[in-house]
Specification:
heterodimer, A: 163 residues, alpha+beta, Glutaredoxin, 2 domains, B: 531 residues, alpha/beta, Rossmann fold, Ubiquitin-like (UB roll), five-stranded mixed beta sheet, 23 helices, globular
């Protein structure tokens, strides 16, 4: 997908990355704040940021890569417009999350870590959203939805797609 | 009853309330009031923790708040028709959603809310509200005390780490106090990743100033001028609330260079985690804060001696730190007076999973699991019998009904080879397949292992494979026995050979499932014993 970017888009991305590095590089333990800033802005963490980060923080590219890939939160590939996470942890399992996973996957026509063909939704597993009093739960973007059924998830996704 | 002032209506802003539509409910109430030309003051409070009843709406009266719950947007016009704002009238009293005075609801009344004293009562980001409800009294007292006196009070309170390890907080602080170093840190572990737990999130969203106050006191006690809250990335609402509260505390001089005009300095910053369960382990958390892969460190050195950036560091859980203000306000003896045995004070218990009346129950240590599951929880949500309960997150043991009378106490749980952990209780009804849960425990460990030590990194994957073979060999007694023995041997290696609790405790759910629910694994002897 990166290969599809125009030269201008690549330059824009590089300048955004540089700005985030410049803003955060002097914080103690700056790497995670920089990666968060990049992902919040661009939607994922492109490999193009490894070299400038490594220079700014005096790390090797391998070290930056090692950190990015250690954490589940950082996407190393572009994601859809909306990220839908289904909780797979015990409390949600106790309330039927396994069935919910199967049905949502079928409705969206994708498995975990995949994006719908229209680029609207990326589906990810998550392990606890801290909403265990109202299991099963999903999270769309920054919003948690409790006591979910496949129909309710479909309605939330449809609403997100419409916006 | 209607006075000249707009009537206060409370609709929680806690993320569980939001997950059940509290924003829509709040909007509908405001719109309906506007339509009818009624002036109201809509307060977005924290949650009382009666999560099965969210959105939990309250109306202020001269005699206390009256609760209406759960309120969906479709209920709103009916509530106005019943004159719910003037809720001491017979119409309002007769409304099916009217639960009476909030303080009189027995589920709440039976609790001992110390750490959660303000949750649901105040507007979480209103500093004046916090102060009006006993906020910053602990800090005021601490500022009059010496470091050693503060640490002594925390030690005498009997407070033990509420993250799960239950290490005495005062002893940890004393080590940091005695450690030599100009720069020391207070790190709050807010990487609440255990399924079935949400008390940290509630503190941060529903009463963030109490955490800020607790960390400030910790800083003064051990001589640290910088604090970090390491917050899991799955909690975006908590992030916003904390940052808003920190900004307000800074403006009012409760954080910064001269705390309340004293010579003490304390600054606080929230750092976002990035979705790694292992970063709830304190040394891995410190690595992550330093900008590295969250790999577990060898101990010693203890973080109290060489912690963040190699400096002496207090690493405490959210609940431990949020409990400090009440200890400093009311005294060590007041807090120590609650509890049983060596488990002093209260434990915020979180009812989760397949339970009818889920939510936060803060009680002195000593209540039994059965009281929690049935008296508070009201049994299962599905109406089927509760068959297994996992206490203390994904690394906690599964308990069968025969153990439901165990009191919630660190030592009593340890006697039955179980843990209290962070106080999360997840119930399963009789449709659960415990062999699947055992497999999931290994699978989760494999996904979340930091990879540093072999028993955890390799053992978790091999463990899942062995469980698969146990399930596949239910008809082949010889092979089945061999595989069960293999999982026991593997568990032994993981318990004794892992660097941290992830690998070291994954056998708890696995072996407890096999030992107590052998029939799900096709273990013949267990079948006979059950018959």
């Amino acid at each position: 997908m990166v290969a599809d970017l125009t030269t201008q888009e690549k330059l824009d991305m590089a300048s955004k990355i540089d700005a985030h590095i410049a803003k955060h590089q002097h914080m103690p333990g700056a790497l995670l704040p920089i990666l968060h800033a990049i992902q919040d802005d661009i939607g994922w963490v492109p490999e193009a940021c490894y070299l400038p980060i490594s220079k700014a923080l005096a790390l090797s590219i391998a070290e930056v890569h090692g950190v990015v890939t250690f954490y589940h939160h950082f996407h190393t590939h572009p994601v859809g417009k909306h990220v839908l996470q289904i909780c797979r942890a015990e409390s949600c399992q106790a309330m039927g999350s396994e069935k919910l996973e199967t049905n949502v996957k079928a409705a969206l026509g994708i498995d975990y870590h995949e994006t719908t063909q229209d680029g609207a939704v990326t589906l990810l597993p998550v392990y606890c959203l801290g909403n265990c009093a109202c299991s099963p739960n999903v999270m769309l973007g920054d919003d948690v939805y409790g006591r979910m059924t496949a129909d309710k998830v479909a309605a939330i996704v449809a609403e997100a797609r419409a916006t | 009853m209607v006075t000249g002032f707009p009537i206060k209506i409370f609709v929680p802003r806690d993320s569980t309330a939001l997950s059940l539509g509290a924003d829509s409910t709040a909007k509908a109430i405001q719109a309906e009031a506007d339509k009818r030309g009624i002036e109201i003051e809509l307060v977005r409070n924290g949650s009382r923790g009666l999560f099965w009843l969210e959105p939990f709406v309250e109306v202020a009266t001269s005699q206390g708040r009256v609760a209406f719950a759960p309120v969906q947007p479709k209920d709103v016009s009916g509530l106005f028709d019943a004159d719910f704002l003037n809720n001491l009238t017979s119409n309002a009293k007769a409304h099916p959603l009217n639960l009476g005075f909030t303080e009189e609801i027995s589920w709440l009344k039976k609790q001992q809310r110390l750490t959660f004293a303000r949750s649901g009562i105040t507007n979480p980001v209103c500093l004046d509200d916090y102060i009006a409800h006993d906020g910053y009294k602990g800090l005021k007292n601490a500022l009059k005390m010496t470091s050693a006196e503060i640490v002594k009070a925390v030690t005498e309170s009997g407070l033990r780490g509420r993250g799960g390890a239950a290490f005495p907080t005062g002893i940890k602080w004393n080590t940091v106090l005695g450690a030599i170093g100009e720069q020391k840190y207070i790190v709050c572990n807010a990487d609440e990743g255990d399924s079935g737990t949400y008390s940290d999130r509630m503190i941060m969203e529903d009463d963030p100033f109490v955490l800020i106050e607790g960390m400030t006191i910790a800083g003064i006690a051990v001589g640290a001028n910088q604090g970090y809250i390491y917050l899991r990335s799955e909690y975006p609402h908590a992030l916003k609330t904390l940052n808003e509260a920190i900004a307000k505390a800074e403006q009012a001089g409760y954080l910064g260079h001269h705390i309340c005009g004293s010579g003490h300095a304390f600054n606080l910053e929230v750092r976002r985690a990035a979705g790694a369960y292992i970063c709830g382990e304190e040394t891995s958390l410190l690595e992550s804060l330093e900008g590295k892969r969250g790999q577990v460190r060898f101990k010693p050195p203890l973080p109290a001696i060489e912690g963040l950036f190699g400096k002496p560091t207090v690493v405490n859980n959210v609940i431990s730190l949020a409990t400090i203000p009440i200890i400093l306000d009311k005294g060590a003896a007041y807090y120590q007076n609650y509890g049983m045995g060596r488990s002093r004070g209260t434990l915020p218990i979180q009812l989760a999973g397949n339970i009818k009346q889920t939510g936060l129950v803060e009680l002195a240590f000593g209540a039994t699991l059965r009281e929690l599951l049935y008296d508070f929880g009201g049994g299962s949500a599905t109406g089927r019998p509760i068959r297994a309960v996992q206490v203390g997150g994904p690394l906690g043991a599964f308990l069968p009904e025969s153990q439901f009378d165990t009191p919630l106490d660190y030592e009593e749980f340890s006697k039955i080879w179980a843990v209290l952990g962070h106080g999360g209780i997840v119930a399963f009804d009789d449709s659960v397949d415990m062999s699947k849960m055992a497999r999931y425990a290994f699978e989760f460990c494999a996904i979340e292992s930091c990879g540093k030590c072999t028993p955890c990194r390799i053992g978790s994957t091999r463990g899942a494979e062995v469980i698969d073979r146990i399930i596949a060999n239910k008809g082949n007694a010889k092979e089945h026995d061999k595989q069960v023995q293999l999982v026991r041997d593997l568990s032994d290696t993981m318990i004794n050979g892992s660097l941290c609790a992830l690998g070291g405790m994954t056998p708890y759910p696995v072996l407890s499932a096999i030992n107590h629910f052998g029939e799900d694994f096709g273990i013949e002897s267990a079948k006979k014993a059950a018959a």
